[in-house]
Design goal:
- The chain is of the alpha/beta class.
- It is 35% helix and 18% strand.
- The protein is built from 12 helices and 12 strands.
- Strands 3-2-1-4-5-6-12-9 form an 8-stranded mixed sheet, with helices on both faces. A two-stranded antiparallel ribbon has the order 7-8.
- Helix 1 packs parallel to helix 11 and helix 9 packs antiparallel against helix 10.
- It is globular and about 55 Å long.
- The two termini are 33 Å apart.
- Bound molecules: beta-D-ribofuranose and calcium ion.
- Calcium ion (CA) binds next to loops.
Length: 327
C-alpha cells in the first residue's frame, strides 16, 4: 500500500512585524509542516526599516538566522503611507520592548527580486503568506507578468467579506494601507485564500489565553510575553476588550489546518474610492462556471474566485497556536 506522503509546504511570509506578526512567524517556524524560505518586509504596523529590523530580531530570537530577510516597499502604490500604527504596536512595532539592534542583516536584493527568484527556482511550489499591506505582492505581479502562474497559492491575512472593518467602519488595516495593491493581488491568476476579519476577529484569546501563550519556557514564548501587553492594553483602553484577536497567526494556522475554516468562493474587488476605500467586495452569483470564470458584473469581470474564510473553529485554532508556541 502506498502511504500518502504529506508534502512540506514551502512558504514566504511577507510581513510588517508587528506584535501579531511576531507570533505568526514563530508559529510557522515551529510547524514541521511548513518550510519558511524567507521573510519579506513591508511598511504597515511600523515603517519598513523598523519592520526589517524586527524580522531580523525575530529570527535571531528563534535561532533561525539561516532564513533570509529581504526588504520591500516603503510606501503604498499611490505613495501615501497612512502612517505607522504605533498606538497598536508601539513605536518600534514590538510593544516598546526596547530590544537591542539586530546583529544580522537583510539581503542586498529587494523583496520583489527575492520573491521572483525563489518562485522561479521552485515553480508551483511556493505559497506566499502576506500578513501586511499587499504592496510587495502587487509589485511582484506587475513587474514579472506571468509569475502568478508559477505561484502555488497566496494565503493572505486581510480584508473583510461580511464583517465590518477594523481600521475604518468598512476596511481592514492591511487592505486599507494599500487598496490599489490589494486589488491587483485579488486579480492574480493563482489560487488566493483570504483569511480576513470574518474569522480572525473570532480567534479571540481572553486574558488567560494570552497569558498562557507567553508562559512557556522557551525564547519565542518569552518574547511574546514581552510584546503582547502593549497590544492587550491598547485594546483594553480603547475598546474595553479583555483579550485580543489573533489575526496573522490565523493565516498560518490555515496553511496547516484548512479544515478548521469554512470557506466560500467569490471573486473580490477592492474599493479604492471614498469612505469605503479598502473594502473587499465579493461579486456574487452571476452564472459562474466550474473554473470560476462566469459572467460577471463589470467590476468582477475576468477575476478568479477568491477562497474566502467565513467561519472558524475558534477552539481548535487557539489550541493549535498555543501548542505550537509551547515548543
Ligand atoms: C492586520 O493589521 C495589522 O495591524 C496586523 O498585524 C494584522 O496583519 C489586522 O487588521
Ligand atoms: Ca501584520
Amino acid at each position: 500500500r502506498i502511504k500518502e506522503i504529506k508534502m512540506v509546504k514551502k512558504i514566504i511570509i511577507d510581513t510588517d512585524p508587528g506584535i501579531d506578526d511576531s507570533l505568526a512567524i514563530f508559529i510557522a517556524l515551529n510547524s514541521p509542516e511548513l518550510e519558511v524560505l524567507g521573510l519579506t518586509t513591508v511598511f504597515g504596523n511600523a515603517v519598513t526599516k523598523t519592520c526589517t529590523e524586527n524580522a531580523l530580531r525575530l529570527l535571531e530570537i528563534a535561532e533561525r538566522i539561516d532564513i533570509p530577510v529581504a526588504e520591500g516597499a516603503h510606501a503604498p502604490l499611490n505613495g501615501n503611507f497612512r502612517g505607522a500604527a504605533t498606538f497598536v504596536h508601539g513605536d518600534d512595532g514590538q510593544g516598546n520592548a526596547k530590544l537591542p539592534l539586530p546583529t544580522t542583516q537583510a539581503l542586498k536584493i529587494d523583496a520583489v527580486t527575492f520573491l521572483n527568484e525563489t518562485i522561479e527556482n521552485n515553480p508551483n511550489e511556493i505559497t506566499l503568506v502576506p500578513v501586511g499591506p499587499l504592496t510587495n505582492i502587487a509589485n511582484l505581479l506587475t513587474k514579472h507578468p506571468g509569475i502568478d502562474a508559477k505561484i502555488k497559492e497566496i494565503v493572505l491575512m486581510g480584508g473583510n467579506a461580511r464583517s465590518p472593518g477594523n481600521a475604518t467602519p468598512t476596511a481592514e488595516a492591511n487592505i486599507l494601507n494599500d487598496p490599489e495593491a490589494a486589488d491587483i493581488v485579488f486579480s492574480a491568476q493563482c489560487k488566493v485564500t483570504m483569511v480576513g476579519l470574518d474569522v480572525t476577529n473570532n480567534v479571540f484569546m481572553n486574558e488567560e489565553q494570552v497569558n498562557t501563550i507567553g508562559s512557556f519556557d522557551n525564547a519565542k514564548s518569552k518574547h511574546i510575553n514581552k510584546i503582547n501587553p502593549f497590544y492587550f492594553n491598547f485594546l483594553k483602553n480603547f475598546f474595553e476588550e479583555e483579550g485580543m484577536p489573533i489575526h496573522d497567526s490565523s493565516a498560518v494556522t490555515y496553511l496547516v489546518h484548512p479544515e478548521y475554516f469554512e470557506t466560500i468562493q467569490h471573486p473580490i474587488k477592492v474599493e479604492t474610492l471614498g469612505i469605503s476605500r479598502g473594502k473587499t467586495w465579493m461579486g456574487m452569483g452571476i452564472s459562474d462556471n466550474e473554473e470560476g470564470l462566469g459572467e460577471r458584473l463589470k467590476p468582477w469581470e475576468n477575476r478568479r474566485k477568491t477562497n474566502i474564510c467565513v467561519n472558524v473553529n475558534t477552539k481548535k485554532v487557539i489550541a493549535f497556536i498555543t501548542e505550537r508556541i509551547s515548543i
